[in-house]
């Protein structure tokens, strides 16, 4: 449990750092463009890269907190035992889907291995690594939650 809490905390601090880099990059662009009259070419690209990383890693964070969107009007009307079984099935199927997205993300890495970004010269595979990483984290959490729900038995 302690390892899980440490990893969760580290994960959240990584997301905070990504958002701070995006904020500083955008702030620098505003300062240099409007106050100094010299726009920086790399800040927009860095902000886009950080946004991509934040978007895919946030899926994992939302999965950890069980804050992903869901429509639970049907689940609320089911008997407790059936609702519990449905929760297990949905979480497990979601884990499989997220794992499939991670596999597709790895294929994307292979497609972009020879491309680099324009301003920063960062390899695109490094930018798109956030997709499989975020989906692997989210699928692992979904599988863990579904197995925990099996053990919980209502």
Brief characterization of the structure:
This protein is an all-alpha fold and 154 residues long.
How does this structure look, described?
By secondary structure, the protein is an all-alpha fold. The chain has one domain (2-152). 79% of the residues lie in helices and 0% in strands. The chain contains 6 helices and no strands. Helix 2 runs parallel beside helix 6 and helix 4 (80-111) packs antiparallel against helix 6. The longest helix is centred in the first third of the chain and has 34 residues, at 2-35. The chain is elongated. The two termini are 23 Å apart.
Number of helices: 6
| Number of structurally distinct domains | 1
Point out poorly predicted stretches.
none
User: Structural class from helices and strands?
Assistant: mainly alpha
Shape: elongated
The share of residues in helices is over 70%
Main beta-sheet annotation: none
Number of beta strands? 0
Mean pLDDT score, rounded?
92
Radius of gyration based on Cα positions: 20 Å
Strand content: under 5%
Features:
elongated, mainly alpha
Describe the secondary-structure layout:
Layout: H1 2-35, H2 42-64, H3 73-77, H4 80-111, H5 124-128, H6 130-152
């Amino acid at each position: 449990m302690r390892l899980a809490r440490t990893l969760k905390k580290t994960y959240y601090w990584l997301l905070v750092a990504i958002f701070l880099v995006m904020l500083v990059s955008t702030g620098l662009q505003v300062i240099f463009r409007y106050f100094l009259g010299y726009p920086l070419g790399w800040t927009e690209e860095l902000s886009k890269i950080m946004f991509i990383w934040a978007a895919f890693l946030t899926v994992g964070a939302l999965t950890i907190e069980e804050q992903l969107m869901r429509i639970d009007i049907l689940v609320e009307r089911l008997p407790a035992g059936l609702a519990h079984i449905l929760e297990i099935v949905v979480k497990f199927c979601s884990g499989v889907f997220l794992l499939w997205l991670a596999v597709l993300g790895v294929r994307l890495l292979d497609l972009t291995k020879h491309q680099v970004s324009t301003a920063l010269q960062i390899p695109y595979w490094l930018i798109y690594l956030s997709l499989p990483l975020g989906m692997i984290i989210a699928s692992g959490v979904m599988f863990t939650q579904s197995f925990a729900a099996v053990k919980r038995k209502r």
